[in-house]
């Protein structure tokens, strides 16, 4: 139970026992508030945190030590690639700036100075990611006292993905088809993205037994993801990622020919690192003077193709491994608005020459 006393300046101070140090010495935390009521409430809140084992004594903990502990505590709940991303933010960005400060010393000025410094060298979207991660790290330690809680973080940059035209895609497809050395492999990878809408990690996790050669279907149930141990196969984050999709017959034949061309059959269809293929694709696009796109834009191409064919949103979402609401967000990014198409359809189906306004009829 906290003890409370009135100070000479008229405020109230509560003393709360928070544990013992390594030598058995009692540790106390002092809370000062302007009124007895506020002081009691704050002391009760702290005692509740201690009782429920939510309290972390951070008065003398340096930010570097806490971030290392935070990564350790959250490692199992994060996807391997997400964990590596967070670890990079901590080591490359947060530690050089905050590492030697004690958690109790960090204030809003430090946070704002960091954010402004990063905005000079990084995009608004990237700095927003920094701030969201930093906010989470500090709130886990300081709860409602986090210096991030009242700071407005940057908005995302306007994102305009590249939408390939049919001619652009044909140029890319023809280029790999004509390659006598890597043509079958490259064509298979590119068509899985552009004709099936698979993510890069999904393509490079595919195994030969995922293909049903008679039904022309493909099972997607894993994705290649980077981790501390290198690339690993992992299950999709949500059930939407688990799916079986129909594959065009031409692509099935390409995969058959590719399999026959291999000297050694491996379990995975494309036993190479996903990031290596992305680099290879970027170099190929540049050296062959092809439309300047990222590999992921081929998946966008498939999303736009589904939209243009009038494929129902629920079917398209299932095929792409998305939630329906996420799919609609993608359509918006690709400047494909269902409402505007419907508006134009209504306009074109009402002919003013046949149906004159009532007011004009009365005047005559």
UniProtKB/TrEMBL annotation:
Signal peptide: none annotated. It holds the Pfam family Phage_integrase. Residues 61-142 form the Core-binding (CB) domain. Gene3D superfamilies: 1.10.150.130, Intergrase catalytic core. CDD domains: INT_ICEBs1_C_like. Transmembrane segments: none annotated. Keywords: DNA integration, DNA recombination, DNA-binding. The keyword DNA-binding applies. Belongs to the 'phage' integrase family. This is Integrase. It comes from Anaerosolibacter carboniphilus.
């Amino acid at each position: 139970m906290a003890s409370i006393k009135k100070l000479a300046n008229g405020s109230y101070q509560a003393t709360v026992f928070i544990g013992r140090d390594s030598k058995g010495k009692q540790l106390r935390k002092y809370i000062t508030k302007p009124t007895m009521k506020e002081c009691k409430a704050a002391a009760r809140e702290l005692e509740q945190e201690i009782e429920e084992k939510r309290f972390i004594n951070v008065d003398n903990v340096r930010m570097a030590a806490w971030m290392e502990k935070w990564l350790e505590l959250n490692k199992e709940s994060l996807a391997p690639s997400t964990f590596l991303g967070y670890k990079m933010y901590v080591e490359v960005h947060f530690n050089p700036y905050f590492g030697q400060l004690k958690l109790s010393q960090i204030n809003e000025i430090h946070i704002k100075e960091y954010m402004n410094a990063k905005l000079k060298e990084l995009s608004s979207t990237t700095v927003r990611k920094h701030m969201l991660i930093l906010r989470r790290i500090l709130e886990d330690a300081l709860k409602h006292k986090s210096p991030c809680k009242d700071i407005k973080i940057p908005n995302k940059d306007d994102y305009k993905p590249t939408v390939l035209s049919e001619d652009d895609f044909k140029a890319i497809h023809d280029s790999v088809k004509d390659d006598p050395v890597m043509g079958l492999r490259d064509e298979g990878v590119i068509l899985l993205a552009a004709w099936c809408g698979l993510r890069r990690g999904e393509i490079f996790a595919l195994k030969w037994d995922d293909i049903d050669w008679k039904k022309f279907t493909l099972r997607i149930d894993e994705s290649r993801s980077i981790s501390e141990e290198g690339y690993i196969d992992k299950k999709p984050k949500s059930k939407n990622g688990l799916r079986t999709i129909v594959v065009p017959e031409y692509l099935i034949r390409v995969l058959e020919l590719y399999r026959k061309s291999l000297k050694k059959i491996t379990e995975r269809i494309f036993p190479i690192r996903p990031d290596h293929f992305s680099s290879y694709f970027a170099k190929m696009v540049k050296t062959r003077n092809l439309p300047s796109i990222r590999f992921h834009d081929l998946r966008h191409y498939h999303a736009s193709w589904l939209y243009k064919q009038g494929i129902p949103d629920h079917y398209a979402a299932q095929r792409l491994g998305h939630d329906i609401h996420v799919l609609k967000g993608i359509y918006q990014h690709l400047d494909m608005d269902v409402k505007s198409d419907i508006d134009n359809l209504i306009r074109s189906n009402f002919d003013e020459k046949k149906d004159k306004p009532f007011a004009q009829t009365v005047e005559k």
